[in-house]
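Anyone else keep sequences and structure tokens together like this?

Example one:
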Amino acid sequence: MTEPRDFDVVVVGAGPAGTAAALRAADLGAKTALVTRDAFGGMAANDGPIPVRTLAHAARLAREARQLSRYGIAVENPRLDYSSLVARAREVVAEARRHSTLLTQINSAGVALFEHAGTASFINAQTIRSEGAPLLRGKKIVLCPGGVSRALTVPGAELAVTPADAFSLTAAPKSMIVIGAGATGVQVASIFNALGSSVVLCQTGLRIIPSEDADVSLEVTTGFREDGIDVRENFGAIEQLEKISGGVRLTVNDGARPTSLDATLVVCAIGWRADAEALNLALPGVETNARGFIEVDDSLRTSAPHVYAAGDVIGRSMLVPPALRDGFIAGNNAAEAERLTVTASVEPIASFTDPEYAKVGLTEEQARGQYDVIVSRASYAETTRPIIDGRTRGFCKIVVDRTTHQFLGCHIVGERAVEVAQMAAIAMTAEMTVDAVARIPLSFPTYANVFGRAALRAVRKLGTNAAVAI
């Protein structure tokens, strides 16, 4: 067997968490290797937010084209060339890669990068083997392999595709059933509905996007139904999938009797699991929890003292910003710098659906269970910029601590909600009071004004004074 190459830190996975971990370790002077199964950037760059956001932009353009006549612009009916759209998504991924400062920093920091190396696994407690890379032995190992879509466990489950598969199609399907209405499922449903597919969105629970504020779920559901998506809550138990002429038949039992739905394509979006099965975690003594995610302490150290983990594989907030933060912490600690720990922080969460939705902090229900709160709300329909743009569906809702006047949560549904939520994230991170936010002279007319209006109304409810926010 070839002798392994020795490093201070070996990082597995080059998504946001792995990239941040490798860069931090190298910046601290550790001899660092970064090995990844596929291309640098991981799922986030190659199959996740970047290409999906490109498709969401196309959906937005298609939606905007449908209201051109309202503004006196006459055009022929636009037609979707889905293969060209997929090609554009690939172009965006390639361009983002070319301009990636992270890749430049990785190279300039002296990290030994091994791309397209295949699946990594431990062959002993400190050595990683990948088919397309040399053996890598590390004093410390940081595991950031990411996650993969959960699959159905019913007869015919193989007939359902993953969201990534759906976004890689060569044509938009005539009809689609989306199983699971969490953040990923609603995004799939919204994009393909805008691109012309007939979509049924199925949720076994009481409401879609159940992790969001209840008002957000209701508003998004209403918007989806107005736009033609068939939203079905309390969907029942899926019994089987079977191949039929032209597509797939799904059989479901709601407790009364089995019924069936037919579609060109069935997309399974029932969750995410750790992509860790091939790692041979028993060799280094790394333990996982009942859900299959790697267990870590507040410094992101696993049950094996020399192994750390970050990103989707630990099953916490499966988003890019916390992955970057946690990767930095894991790389820092693996390089034996001053110990850092993961602390509670503001994490904006959003989805590029139509209507968009975004949140920062606690839901109203969560906040009421812990604090004496006031809730303030402003609608898009009363805000000038959405009126100008013909995008009056939605609202901004803020939850404030009555005693301290601090923001506890902010929830937005509507056009540019994802962008507006960043204001709330900044205000909360800076520990600004709602009074201070209400005094900010926001540019007019902008979508941010809906956040300013909600802040001003909160100030009035609290009985304090602030300049009028437009």
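And example two:
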Amino acid sequence: MIYPENRPKLGVALSGGGARGLAHIGILKVLRNADIQIDFMAGSSMGGVIAASYAAGLAPSEIEEIASSVGTISNLAQLVDPTLLKKGIFKGEKVTKLFKRYLGEKSFEDLEIPLTVTAVDLNSNQEIRISDGLVADALRATISIPGIFVPVEKEDMRLVDGGLLNNLPVDIVRDMGADIILAVDVGWSGFGKEQIKELNQKLISRVPLVDMSLTLYETINLVLSRQVDDKIQSIQPDFLLRPEIPSHITSLTGYTQATELITFGEEVTQPILADLRLSLHPTNDLT
């Protein structure tokens, strides 16, 4: 298919949401199968990870295979590298190695689709938009949930999860040049004490995740939900997808349910395809 040079440019913004962000894979799969070209991508936290994988040229089926492989309890356990709880529970070094295993030493300039991922600098209390340097390093920053991962120290900054200030970066893809914005909000679902105990036993028994984790995730849930609602009100995307993910599939414990999450993404995308095509090709000038 040949795309007219003057067609509207499509920007896709993918939200954070931990494991629930695996639903983004299903959305990208449907867009890819429908031969819909994405011109700009932005993502926060897990949304940044999925966006970077796609922008690097990985097919959705490849990303799905990686997610399904990594998402087993045994493989997740291999990513655990506890600290002494001074700056965070996990060092995050093994996660960085995981990103480099699949993305290598790619820089943002090497990507097939222009990409920006978000982070927050704790020193300046400012949102940071990352669009240069090594992609793996940027992803390590954007997923750094405070208290869970040690912040990424870069120059005079201490970078943590970009979702804290911009969990659905619709404004970023607009600033990148998008004419049509497709935003995907997978939501953030906290989890209760029983789920924390179960996860602690199965995955990270060496780390005491108890009431501290519950309080942290409940706080993040409140902050992110309010922030995303405000962002959507101020910058209304042309298309907003919110996969119907059950609340029991949580931001942390849902990694073992990759297939189900991807299906939710596929199901929510199919109904908008006709309208999306019309927006991108309003004069039916496909040739």
